Amino acid sequence: MDFSVLRNLISRYCAGEENWVDSRTVYIGQKEPPPGAEAYIPQRYPDNRIVSSKYTFWNFIPKNLFEQFRRIANFYFLVIFLVQLIIDTPTSPVTSGLPLFFVITVTAIKQGYEDWLRHKADCSINECPVDVVQQGKASRTQSHKLRVGDVVVVKEDETFPCDLVLLSSSREDGTCYVTTASLDGESSHKTYYAVPDTKAFRTDREVESLHATIECEQPQPDLYKFVGRINIYKDTEEPVARPLGSENLLLRGATLKNTHHIYAVAIYTGMETKMALNYQSKSQKRSAVEKSMNAFLIVYLCILISKAVINTVLKYAWQWSPDRDEPWYNHRTENERQRPVVIRAFTDFLAFMVLFNYIIPVSMYVTVEMQKFLGSYFITWDEEMFDEELGEGAQVNTSDLNEELGQVEYVFTDKTGTLTENNMEFIECCVDGNVYIPHAICNGQILSAASSIDMIDSSPGGYRREHEDLFFRALCLCHTVQVKEEETVDGIKRGFHQGRPTSFYISSSPDEVALVEGMKRLGYTYLRLKDSYMEILNKDDEIERFELLHVLNFDSVRRRMSVIVKSSSGEYLLFCKGADSSIFPRVVSGKVEQVKARVEQNAVEGLRTLCVVFRRLSADEYQEACLLLNQAKLALQDREQRLAQAYDAIERDFVLLGATAVEDRLQEKAADTIESLHKAGMKVWVLTGDKMETAAATCYASKLFRRSTQILELTKKRTEEQSLHDVMFELSRTVLRQRSMSGLSVDCQDFGLIIDGATLTAVLKSGPEGNYREVFLEVCRNCSAVLCCRMAPLQKAQIVKLIKASKEHPITLAIGDGANDVSMILEAHVGIGIMGKEGRQAARNSDYAIPKFKHLKKMLLVHGHYYYIRIAELVQYFFYKNVCFIFPQFLFQFFCGFSQQPLYDTAYLTLYNISFTSLPILLYSLVEQHVTMDTLRRDPSLYKDIAKNSLLRWPVFLYWTCLGVFDAVVFFFGAYFLFDNTTFTSNGQMFGNWTFGTLVFTVLVFTVTIKLALDTHHWTWINHFVIWGSLLFYVIFSLLWGGIIWPFLNYQRMYYVFMQMLSSGPAWLSIILLITISLLPDIIKKVLCRAMCPTPTECAQGAKKLTPGPADSTPLTSHHRLLKGHTTDSSQIHLGVPETSTLGMSEPIPQKLLLAHRPKGGGPDLCSSVGPHVLCLSGAGFTYYAPGPETSV
């Protein structure tokens, strides 16, 4: 039986229309098509209302409660509270209900406030005014009333209210300029195009007369993909079909720029817009600390159940004799005697569970949430992580992973825009092996030289001159650069030279701008694109016009772009530029070897290279190309695949012209940051799409690889020479042999691995010769750094996933700045986005966003270190103080006949975790600094002290638990033996059980609070206020609670108990004595450990006490700071360090070092030698050379 029909019906009626209809038809202006055309089928679409809120007024309470009680801890305390209500338990339901109510209420208020802010933001967006063309004129309405098919008028600097298809523009060529900064952060102006058949409709009435329908795909979140076609109906003709692509789609949230107004039709509205689809919630990440908390919670739950079982069994064993079962003062009722033993035992078990349930700290969860939420502000408030150029600081998108920043073992970083500035500068070009260097920049100054070309051979022949002209024309024509001639752009005056406006270039790709500007300096100036004609000014000051026929856009799979143009002589030319790996296989002629050698040389120097090719097309070949492209563009199904096939068929049989070299400089302090991460024990991997030579040069410059590093290659070139099996096991033998030798030698060889995308794909696939994953991971574990080049975005995520799933399960961090880094950012345990020039997609999808790569150092080594220390202490302390709290209750049952008599008063049970002991640990977890920030920055190796969740391991957890048990035994039996003398007071009055419980509770509160005070290293006035204020609050509360007759209490068992206890001298002595005995073992243990086997952190704490005063900066940090400032004499730089500046650890140098600045282009470096150290200033900066094999590059 064929179930396909049934499956389609189910998907149609159950899954929703969008899931089974693969396209939609939009009627422009809500008008039916003319008679005789296609049938009019009205479709229902959502309105333009944006809803980012989670709750409504009606569902807030039930939905929020449902979500909160899905948490195991909250559900557990709810069950305990219900048990207290149902059965006769030793404690009041208030003792469980009040803390639970407090936690639920605080969380609900926090979530409700956040959702209210989202409601306000939604209302402000949905009520924005929008101009809609109706009945031949524009009328104003609210944004949420827009419908699919409405024709909208958008004016300059207005934001698009929904996803629109451009119909016409105030510009004659039907184009408009748009910035998509709110979507992907790209501030550059992008050009969008109207269909030629609709761009003539420029007034309200003309647009109203348009009869057309649009067929397009259903909404999907890809910002850069759109497939559709527009059918335009004319009076007597068949409808004209034109393709629609992403260049016609204006996205909601983008802004119209430098265009007076446009007309566009609404395609996707409301929650179906691409912006809304991109803001769907991501998968929840959980930190290692949270997993440890859950594991500890399970252990304590088992302890709780064990306590309840032990007490239940012992109760019935103790009551086995009748005189104990029914003492004379507590006879049972008839109903109690007739109840089965099993029911009675189960009821007693539940009662003991209620009595001991405080060992599970419900308030710990709300304290942890508050600590994470409030602690995240320290990152956003950090002035050192604020970037003046961007005008922004660090951002926290999720506070749930703060402590994970202190546990990172692997850092995966992008190269372009992350390690480098993504600020391209044209360096040179090579035509047929001859190098051309622009003279426009010489010795750091801009010159207006008439001769623009500096060639190796100044007498080109005819053939070479033709290729030279074709090469320069190719770079002037094969791009998507826009020319701006306006005096003012976005309120900023640009393009001025000597008082008159000149043109300047903008593009979404900084590479293209650098190339076009480089050609301008070499004598070929791109002027404009007007009416589909591209104009260039050649070096003879003649204007050449080329008709732009087709643009074959760049994509990350092809790694190239092409244009088809028609010259003034009628010749069809195909120009193409792209990565060498995608160009050379398609070249049939040209000086390939010479160009390839120059490309490889530039790549080794760290320059970004592109190859340029061309092909002459005959009229028939051009018509065939047009047919292929038009068929692919009009397809609604599989348009991308068809376009890729068409591009592949057209881009072939090229003639090689030459190559270009563009420099992308290393970011400030990128090398210092990577070096610090290495010292902190992290392994840094660079994942990039660039070629191996370029990426390797960047790795050397950034100190990822050192000169002493032995490079292991796992590349396609090597696997072509040897089988993958042989290469893998040869690498494995190399690293394992070195690891076995490292145990005998002091000097251990440093390995670095280079792998490319093609080889990675082969490694990850299980072939007939076996699975190489484990061998690959073994090699990587023994390498200090790994470079993965020629990586696709999905491969970056696969690498991260592979390391995450390895047997060590390390904590991973991914950092990048572009849309191609989003996949690895989402895959890693911690994702960090850089607010770069490639857009804000990475920053939007990350857990944290920082302005520059250098800020990663402080983010991990300082903030991450502090966050982990603080929350680890918080978790262990909470379990410790609850063991101290509830274990005396367990011991008390042995002395009260297992009668479930509580040791503490109800008020104490309720307020212990809420009031008496909560604020000190919360404040500790926010402001504690066990070592100073400068110490953490100066000594990155301290990060290793907290690696692998060291403070929440089972031995540490066991120590805290045993310490809590010991303190609880001291509290209980210390008070018990002091109570052995029943005439405890001076007047002979005896103390009762409530006085005994109050004495134990008083010692408990003072001990756990003073224990936290002893663990505090960073004292401020607020620490003193909260710690000593909590103790004072307990005393005042106890005095008031027992000193006043409260009318709302039926009985007041604590009346005058606290005052009576304090009136006894022995009680004061016992309190002081028991507190001292309880704290003594922990103090002795710490003193012995510090004296006999101190950790690096404890050594750093001791060093700070021995050398008070501000901590010294890291070597050369002050030099960097000084070089940022301006000096009056460029040839002299005074390194202003008070008295001495320390290079290394001990060698002092004079207060002033005179260093000569070498102009770019010549002259020797002037170095100042100080002992074994050399400080050298060359080019744009200086280098510090230390003795030993590891010299800087």
Poorly predicted sequence stretches spanning 5 or more consecutive residues: 1-20, 440-460, 487-501, 1108-1193
Total DSSP E strands: 46
Principal-axis shape equals elongated
**Class based on secondary structure composition and strand pairing:** alpha+beta
Figure out the total of helices. Answer: 40
Fraction in beta strands:
15-25%
Residue-averaged pLDDT: 78
Fraction in helix: 40-55%
Rounded radius of gyration (Å)? 37 Å
C-alpha termini separation = 71 Å
User: Major sheet: size, sense and barrel closure?
Assistant: 11 strands, mixed
How would you portray this structure in words?
The protein is an alpha+beta fold. It is built from 40 helices and 46 strands. Strands 16, 17, 20, 27, 28, 29, 30, 31, 32, 33 and 34 form an eleven-stranded mixed sheet that branches. It has a nine-stranded mixed sheet with strand order 14-41-40-39-15-35-38-37-36, sandwiched between helices. It has a six-stranded antiparallel sheet with strand order 3-2-4-13-5-11. Helix 4 crosses helix 12 (about 340-355) and helix 5 runs parallel beside helix 13. The two termini are about 70 Å apart.
Short description:
With 1193 residues, the protein is an alpha+beta fold.
Write the topology of this structure.
Blueprint: H1 4-13, H2 17-20, E1 23-27, H3 60-68, H4 72-86, H5 94-126, E2 129-134, E3 137-142, E4 151-155, E5 163-169, E6 175-180, H6 181-184, E7 186-193, H7 204-208, E8 212-217, E9 228-232, E10 240-244, E11 249-250, E12 255-257, E13 261-268, H8 274-278, H9 288-318, H10 322-325, H11 334-338, H12 341-356, H13 362-375, H14 377-380, E14 395-396, E15 410-413, E16 420-431, E17 434-438, E18 441-442, E19 445-446, E20 453-455, H15 462-477, E21 482-484, E22 488-489, E23 492-493, E24 496-497, E25 500-501, E26 504-506, H16 510-521, E27 525-530, E28 533-537, E29 543-552, E30 560-566, E31 572-578, H17 580-583, E32 587-589, H18 592-604, E33 607-617, H19 619-634, H20 639-650, E34 654-666, H21 670-679, E35 683-687, H22 692-701, E36 710-714, H23 716-721, H24 724-742, E37 751-756, H25 757-764, H26 773-781, E38 785-789, H27 793-804, E39 812-816, H28 822-827, E40 830-834, H29 841-845, E41 848-850, H30 855-892, H31 906-916, H32 918-927, H33 933-938, H34 954-978, H35 993-1015, H36 1021-1043, H37 1057-1062, H38 1065-1092, H39 1096-1106, ...
Parallel strand pairs: 15-35, 15-39, 32-34, 35-38, 36-37, 37-38, 39-40, 40-41
Antiparallel strand pairs: 1-8, 2-3, 2-4, 4-13, 5-11, 5-13, 6-7, 6-12, 8-9, 9-10, 14-41, 16-17, 16-34, 17-20, 18-19, 21-26, 22-23, 24-25, 27-28, 28-29, 29-30, 30-31, 31-33, 33-34, 42-43, 44-45, 45-46
Helix pairs in contact: 3-5, 4-5, 4-12, 5-13, 5-31, 9-12, 9-30, 13-30, 13-32, 18-22, 19-20, 21-30, 24-26, 30-32, 30-34, 30-35, 32-36, 34-35, 34-38, 35-36, 35-38
